[in-house]
Amino acid sequence: MRHSFETSTLVYAFVSENSFNNISGGFSLIFPNRFFVSALFRIFAAMKRKERYEAVLDYYRERMPHVSTELEFGSVFQLLVATMLSAQCTDKRINQVTPALFNRFPDAKSMAQAEMEEVLEYVKSVSYPNSKSQHLVDMSRMLVEQFGGEVPQEMSDLVKLPGVGRKTANVIQAVGFGRSAIAVDTHVYRVSHRLGLVPPKANTPAKVEEELKKNIAEEDRADAHHWLLLHGRYICQSRQPQCDKCPFDAFCPKQLKGSKVNKE
Q1: Does 91 participate in catalysis according to the annotation?
Q2: pLDDT tens digits, residue range 161-214?
Q3: Of residues 107, 185, 223, 249, which has the active-site annotation?
Q4: For residue 128, which of 95, 84, 161 has the smallest C-alpha distance?
Q5: Which of 74, 79, 82, 112 has the fewest CB atoms within 10 Å around its CB?
């Protein structure tokens, strides 16, 4: 069946405000022929990848134009610390421990002078507290010794820091320095696949990042990271996706045979 983006967009505009489960009756009022309704859903399923990006990005540009991390911080150094701590842990938990931590260690110089056990006392309630405490101390010492106590901006320098991988470095570049970067965490990875934004062969975070960069304009990348992350955190959850609340349910490929959601 041939279709146009304009046709998809007209119906998407209606669906985006309500899930199909909630408005099935509404469709019968607008399109009495239910065969036509079924055909429309097949159109959504057949949307080209570019059209999927346009639908998702347009939705969030309109409803959430300005978005940032839910982590609380007062400097780029504190953002780096909070991001490192947030690995496999909730932002809510990190925001509970960082006020006292930052009060005691507000910058790299003060944390570099600490021992791991002292930092551990402040972060023992987060996941993997021992390794994260050691990484924070080692990272701070490297900042003082090699970067004058300041967080570097370049990717090559950021990933040299103990405990800092590409995902964390992308967060620092995007949120801390306003650069065009897109971090791929578990939420972004999952949502990108479920919505059909990336092909199945993009089976690593690095490959997903590459695909997203190909299709998302530089000026949208930092926001797109948060849009996809928040969508995954609150709606497209790993074990129990809230499909009835999803504005993209009408064209989500999880409705197709062999989709990732169907396998879970």
Answers
A1: no
A2: 999 999 999 999 999 998 999 999 999 999 999 999 999 899 999 999 999 999
A3: 185
A4: 84
A5: 74
Catalytic residue among 132, 167, 223, 254: 167
Distance separating alpha carbons of residues 249 and 243, to the nearest angstrom: 6
147-153: long-range contacts (C-beta < 8 A, 24 or more apart)?
149/107, 149/108, 149/109, 149/112, 150/76, 150/77, 150/108, 151/76, 151/77, 151/80, 151/108, 151/176, 153/177, 153/179
User: Cβ distance 119 to 137 under 8 Å?
Assistant: yes
Which residues of the chain, if any, have pLDDT below 70?
1-46, 255-264
- What are the start-end ranges of the H helices in 113-154? 116-123, 129-147
Yes or no: say if 205 and 184 are a contact pair by the CB < 8 Å rule. yes
Q: Which two tokens stand for residue 132?
A: 């994260």
Reply yes or no on whether 167 is catalytic: yes
Check residue 76 and report its DSSP letter. Answer: H
pTM, two decimal places: 0.74
